[in-house]
Amino acid sequence: MADTKVTEKGVETALRRLSRLKILNHPLVMETLADMIALNDHSIQGRKFGLLQLDFNFIVEDPLFVQDYKPYESGVLNAAAFFCPFVTHLNISEIKGLADSDFLGLVALDNLINLQISSNPYDTDCIFTFDGSLAPLLKARGSSLQSLILRRLTVSVRLGLVVKYCPNLKYLSLDCDYSTSFWPEEDQQQAACKQTKMDFVFKQLEELKFSGGICREPPPLGELLSAVPPSLKTLFICKCSGFDDHLLLQVFESFKSLEQLELHHCRLTKSVIERGLFDEENCLKVFKMSVIRPDSLPFQDLGEKWNTYSMAELYIEIRIVLFSAEEDRFD
After folding, report:
1. Cβ(158)–Cβ(184) under 8 Å?
2. What contacts 195, CB < 8 A, 6 or more positions away?
3. Quick check: is 244 in a domain?
4. Which of 229, 263, 282 is the last residue of a domain?
5. Does residue 276 belong to any structural domain of this protein?
6. Is 93 found in the same domain as 67?
7. Do residues 107 and 171 both lie within one domain?
8. In Å, what is the CA distance from 184 to each residue of 63, 93, 181, 272, 314?
9. How many domains does the chain fold into?
10. With 0-12 CB in 10 A as exposed, 13-18 as middle and 19+ as buried, what is 178?
11. Which backbone phi and psi does 255 adopt, to 5 degrees?
């Protein structure tokens, strides 16, 4: 119902009357729930909604709904989780003014398997922290998560805790462009020593996406890759200064089941890429990379060389960009 003229009143009617409703895709669902909760509506006291998916996005871009936009009120996130305990998919996107206390009630979501949290790096009112919000939530619910997406967080992202608390992830997407750091203070010595392995590992991870373009601290990508199982199918690396020829060789050697590899705005040499692509043991079906125009010339004939070298089907795409600032976003 995202592109219809259904109003908040219609959404409220659906929530009240359709007791078995599982999915309600409409930009005003959260605003409607917020109003029902804020008004202390007696008709929903003690009631549990059967919704399986919640999208918290109080930034309404559709002009049709701009007049209905209401700013987020503290406590609504926890209350909505209380009234919708069966949620399996939770998306928290660019809510202004989020604090650690807004995440406390989410630990009760026993069925949560897909979690996405996005923040606005220009939101100065956003005061939640990783240690005070995400860490407790992942500690409580991380073992059941199959998919985790963290996008544009301005807080420290503790990669070690993500691995520790979410061992059963199948899909992990980390857009850490604005993250301040990756290690808790007590582990700074560990970071300084450049530890090469995590203390915990992912058991079922099939797809990993990582972007770390302008983060203030170099991401420990080598340590993260050491926690990934050999059965990894898809790897996407974007704007990561720490991803070099050495790590690329590690990728080719460690992930023999890899089917799709995307490398965007990474400083790599052609010889190392060819060495991995032309390895008879690799299972790649798709290889994509973006390079800045001054560095592009050596890579432009990769596809032709591959066709000459092998009869195997491999889609190769080399994208030439003018500036490294051009972004390759992912969800």
Report:
1. yes
2. 220, 223
3. no
4. 229
5. yes
6. no
7. yes
8. 42, 25, 8, 34, 41
9. 3
10. buried
11. -115, 75
Give CA–CA dist 306/204, Å, rounded: 31
Predicted TM-score (pTM) of this structure: 0.81
The per-residue pLDDT for range 70-92, each reduced to its tens digit, is 566 777 788 788 888 899 999 98
What residue spans of the chain are helical by DSSP H?
Answer: 8-17, 29-38, 76-83, 135-141, 159-165, 188-192, 221-226, 245-254, 270-277, 302-309
Stronger pLDDT, 146 or 131, i.e. the higher one: 146
Question: Do 27 and 121 belong together in one domain?
Answer: no
Q: Are 205 and 172 in contact (CB under 8 A)?
A: yes
CB contact burial 254-264 (16+ within 10 A = b; e otherwise): ebeebbbbbbb
- Cα dihedral 13, 59, 207, 144 sign: negative
- 267: tokens are 């400083």
Structure tokens at 219: 């991401």
Q: Which tens digit of pLDDT belongs to each residue from 102-127?
A: 888 899 999 999 999 988 777 666 67
| Full DSSP string of 95-159 | -TT--GGGGGGGGG-TT--EEEEE--TT-TT----IIIIIHHHHHHHGGG-SEEEEES--S---H
Based on the fold, state whether residues 59 and 105 are members of the same structural domain.
no
CB 103 within 8 A of CB 141: no
Backbone dihedral angles phi then psi of residue 263, each to the nearest 5 degrees: -130, 115
Contact 98, 71 (CB under 8 A): no
CA atoms within 13 A on the CB side of 245: 8
Distance CA 291, CA 247 (A): 18
Q: Are residues 113 and 10 in the same domain?
A: no
Whether 22 maps to a domain, the answer reads: yes
55 phi/psi in degrees, rounded to 5: -115, 110
What range does the domain containing 125 cover? Answer: 88-229
* Last residue of one domain, picked from the residues 197, 229, 261: 229
Look up tokens 């990756």; give the residue: 182
How many CA atoms, within 13 angstroms, populate the side-chain half-sphere of residue 157?
31
Q: Are residues 110 and 134 in the same domain?
A: yes
Q: Are residues 214 and 101 in the same domain?
A: yes
Q: Are residues 39 and 106 in the same domain?
A: no
